[in-house]
Amino acid sequence: MTLNLSAVDERIEWLCALRPENAVEAIATALADGADEDELWVTGALTATRFLNNQARNLLGFVTHAMIGCEDARRLASGQQRRTRHLLLVQALYQVVCDLYDPCFAPYELQRYWPTRERSTAENIAQLRSDVRFGEYMRADHRLAALEQDLPREVFVDLLLEIGLEGMTCDDHTLITPVLALGMVELVGWEQGYDMLRWALRYSASFPRDFAAYDRAVDLRRRYGLEQGAPLCGLQPERV
Q1: In the predicted model, what is the mean pLDDT of residues 211-235?
Q2: 93 with 15: CB under 8 angstroms?
Q3: CA 56/CA 159 separation, integer angstroms
Q4: If you write DSSP's letter for every residue of 81-147 in order, what string do you get?
Q5: pTM: predicted TM-score of the whole model, two decimal places
Q6: Using alpha carbons only, what angle is made at residue 127 by residues 123 and 133, rounded to the nearest 5 degrees?
Q7: What is the CATH classification number for the domain harbouring 169?
């Protein structure tokens, strides 16, 4: 389907004007009046993307899951009966509204970042990985802007997923976030959805992590020559 982005922008203004005490009724009324469900899913995700701080200061702190929660709930709603879909939509959008009034996440507005480059793309990728590990989320975001322009789309996506994978030993949301963000990007399009991927990177760079377990696994893969995968596949009973 093709989304009406002007209608989505109007819906974002509508959602931002709601308050926790009136949001449920307003969202339910919109659905009863025939509001497009995909349009509402996108409205929730983009509102959270643009106007909430989706980072985490530490693993014990408060984190908003409103942005990725919209995509998670959308997947769960797929194939469900109308009542269940609407319940999931109301809950997801209500959470966005609640977080817009949470002092841990708002007020906030994500700004565009200009691209920052090194002498080569390879060096910029290496510096991006380093910035993420050191928590330099703003500089990492600038580098990401350059790499989004310089890398083929599939290579760019793989890079984001690899960076998320590095943090899995501490917090699985470093990988869950880009995966769910990419799902919403499929619905809303790359240009509108790119900021969700920025948040995926910024989340990975926003709190201290212990990379020892991941680095040890990478070293073992290198030592045993498994960079291209296992040389033998399938059941090998003689090796069990």
Answers
A1: 84
A2: yes
A3: 21
A4: -HHHHHHHHHHHHHHHHHHHT-TTT-S--PPP------SSHHHHHHHHHHHHHHT-HHHHHHHHHHH
A5: 0.89
A6: 150
A7: 1.20.272
Tell the residue number behind the tokens 């879909």, with chain if given.
85
Rounded to whole angstroms, the Cα distance separating 25 from 36 reads 17
Cis, bond preceding 107 (omega within 30 deg of 0): yes
The two three-digit tokens of residue 240, written as one number: 């069990």
* Inter-residue contact 169 to 99 (CB < 8 Å): no
**Looking up tokens 């989505």, which residue turns up?**
8
Distances (CA, A) of 161 to 5, 21, 116, 210, 235: 27, 38, 21, 18, 29
DSSP 214-228: HHHHHHHHHHTT-TT
Q: 167-192, pLDDT tens digit by residue? A: 888 888 899 999 999 999 999 999 99
- Are 126 and 96 members of one domain? no
- What's the rounded Cα separation, in Å, for the pair 184 and 194? 10
Nearest to 123 by CA among 146, 141, 155, 154: 146
- Measured between alpha carbons, how far is 204 from 7 in angstroms, rounded to an integer? 32
How many domains, the chain?
2
| Assigned domain for 239 exists | no
Q: What average pLDDT does the chain have?
A: 93
Within this chain, do residues 137 and 181 fall inside the same structural domain, yes or no?
yes
